[in-house]
Amino acid sequence: MFRKCLTLFPKLSTSTFNISVRKYPAPPKRFYRQTGIITSNGKFEITLDQRKLKTPKGAPFYVESEPLAIAIATEWDAQKDVIDRSRMHLTALSSTVIDNPNNLQKPDIVNYLVNYASTDAILFQSIEDKRLKELQVAEWNPIIEWFNKRHDVALQATDALEVPSFAPGTTMNISRYLSSYNEATLHGIMYAVDTLKSVILTSACMERYIGVEKAVLLSRLEEEFQLGHWGRVEWAHDVSMLDLQARLSAATLFVYFNSSNVFVKQKIPI
């Protein structure tokens, strides 16, 4: 009887169970041998075997920072057999600035970030676990205090579910700080905020009050606390942390190179 049942399995197919199989396109193969940089009128373009790089919309790809151009060329040079665009964060950020797929203007980005600050992840602390609350107070509150002093505001942590209201002048001070950056830099800041879920941690990282690894760890404080209690799957949780570090590192470089007059005096081979 058992053998008879086994003979039925080869006749079954995915259609029998109405299983849909999702097919993903294969990543493109590397089609170039060398990467390079050319400059004209203060703009730097990336070349792939003498072909100029284009944005996803087909626009000319260029940046106004030579170190940033070198970093982007290095991203393309680091691709091996296939091109994995998901790991090319500087290229993606620069393309977003040029193509502007969401048609965002500088005031739009500033308003987005100011509104995000009212729901900043580190302003909301636990009321269910006393040990977690103590950890959040010890690790998050000094960063909040630094942000308040740096930007002359008075943000306060809460353990309530309601979104806290800003004190008078808070919105104006944060807006003034963000508006001091150019549009390309604001795209990098927005990318970092979306990575950390925190304007406060992003500001502390960009101002070099804390490093990238510390900022990522603080953004994952509750998750790391739970992992310390329940255990962790190293290959899964570690990969997630490293991915956040890579994204934030790229955003930090992007902000720095777009907000600083940095030039390379000696050419670096790619």
Question: What report would you give on this structure?
Answer:
It is built from eleven helices and three strands; from the N terminus they run H-E-E-E-H-H-H-H-H-H-H-H-H-H. The protein is mainly alpha-helical. The chain has a three-stranded antiparallel beta sheet with strand order 1-2-3.
Multimer state:
single chain
Q: What is the makeup of the main sheet?
A: 3 strands, antiparallel
The 3D shape can be described as: globular
| First-residue to last-residue Cα separation | 67 Å
Question: What's the quick description here?
Answer:
The protein is mainly α.
Give structural attributes.
270 residues, 3 strands, 11 helices, disordered C terminus, mainly alpha
